[in-house]
Specification:
The protein is α+β, with helices and mostly antiparallel strands and 403 residues long. 52% of the residues lie in helices and 22% in strands. The protein is rod-shaped and about 115 Å long.
């Protein structure tokens, strides 16, 4: 019976014996397997043969102080195999005493915990990287929030300056509308973050579940998924900040790029309201400020969206086309939202005129859009409505060198 117990212990554990000087006198097959050394390479050697260079002298000093004081030593030890690989073992070293209470040898019983230790290290690494990502995101949000506050202060100062100088009433209306757009875009960014925040919560839950089940591949997969979600959330902030850039210097810009930016900023609204958006663009450049044309396009798309809702249109379509015509870049935005009455179409560009509920419109969007097209882009904005469709047409002069 005692022999069977001994065999069971030797086959299920990693065992070695050393004399009082730490010289190996016995190792079992499990010790040879995990270390990569043969029995004859180990017998007569000290345990430093498997010492890992990362393990400091202090740990071995504590070990010898413990066992030479006839006490049992327990620890998780990092070792180095013959082939240079690392393995970890939970070790229990027991001093063996004779009848006179003198130490005659030491027995070390170990079991392999390499997999568990490496998994724990991988988890700690992922946690550290994830914390760093969160810190960077928080820093980025704080920086962007500061920039937006400064930007808002700049806008307010410009409004105050315009009022103080008693300039044309149109300029005051322009900034009033700009602030209304700011509030609308803040609502858009909050809406666009709801889904990725839900996805991020799910990814974190999956990381925790994978860790509990020791699925290292799944941990990496969900970790990469989380990084991509955070990257996309950060890009949303960049798009939002770029849109409200206060830069007012005119330059040549690509018309289609400006239109595409408006579509990106309103993507969640377009999807939520189940609007089919069709585009057909020609490559053209005009002189002006790209953000202002983007603002005009946002106003037009939002007006179509509100008309779809107000008129209970089920199949909702907006088409946006660009083309060159008689020295002009022509942008046409058409919807099937029910059209505009003859009475209203004559007033549609007047300031504070709106057919919407006061909670949905200020009556400044189209007025401001027309002012941007005429004063900012040196062009025109016109509208036609027939057969339940409405078409807004923007014309901007093309420079012959920039077509």
């Amino acid at each position: 019976m005692l022999r069977q117990y001994k065999e069971a212990i030797e086959k299920s554990n990693i065992i070695s014996k050393t004399d009082i000087n730490g010289v190996i006198t016995f190792v079992n097959d499990e010790f040879c397997t995990i270390s990569g050394y043969r029995n004859d390479e180990l017998i007569g050697k000290k345990h430093s043969i498997v010492k890992h260079p990362d393990v400091g002298k202090e740990k071995f000093k504590l070990l010898w102080e413990t066992i030479t004081n006839k006490e049992i030593y327990k620890d998780t030890v990092k070792n180095l195999a013959k082939d240079g690989s690392t393995f970890y073992v939970n070790s229990t070293i027991i001093p063996i005493l004779d009848k006179n209470d003198n130490i005659v040898e030491f027995i070390a019983i170990r079991y392999d915990v390499t997999k568990e230790v490496l998994l724990r290290e991988e988890l700690l690494k992922k946690e550290s990287e994830y914390e760093e990502l969160n810190r960077n995101l928080e820093k980025r949000v704080a920086e962007q929030t500061k920039e937006l506050k400064e930007l808002n202060q700049t806008l307010e100062k410009r409004v105050r300056d315009e009022i103080a100088k008693n300039e044309e009433k149109q300029r005051v209306m322009f900034w009033q509308s700009r602030h209304a757009s700011l509030g609308q875009m803040i609502a858009n960014i909050a809406h666009q973050w709801r889904q990725p925040l839900t996805e991020l919560t799910l990814a974190l839950f999956n990381i925790k579940k994978a860790a509990q089940n020791e699925k290292v591949d799944d941990i990496s997969k969900f970790y990469d998924e989380s990084k991509n979600i955070i990257k996309n959330m950060s890009q949303t902030i960049d798009d939002f900040t770029n849109f409200f850039s206060p830069d007012k210097e005119k330059y040549y810009f690509n018309v289609s790029d400006s239109i595409l930016e408006s579509i990106v900023l309103l993507e969640s609204v377009i999807n939520d309201e189940m609007i089919t958006l069709k585009t057909n663009f020609e490559d053209m450049k005009v002189l002006g400020i790209t953000n202002e044309l983007t603002q005009v396009m946002i106003n037009l798309i939002n007006n179509s969206k509100d008309a779809f809702i107000q008129n209970s249109i089920l199949l909702r379509e907006i088409s946006i086309t660009t083309k060159q015509e008689g020295g002009f870049a022509v942008i046409e935005v058409q919807d099937n939202a029910g059209g505009i009455t003859k009475e209203n179409i004559e007033k549609i560009f007047e300031p504070y005129f709106t057919t919407k509920h006061k909670s949905r419109g200020t009556g400044l969007g189209l007025f401001m859009s027309k002012m941007i097209c005429e004063q900012g882009l040196n062009g025109t904005l016109d509208v036609k409505s027939k057969k339940k469709t409405t078409t807004f047409s923007i014309k901007i002069p093309l420079d012959k060198n920039e077509k």
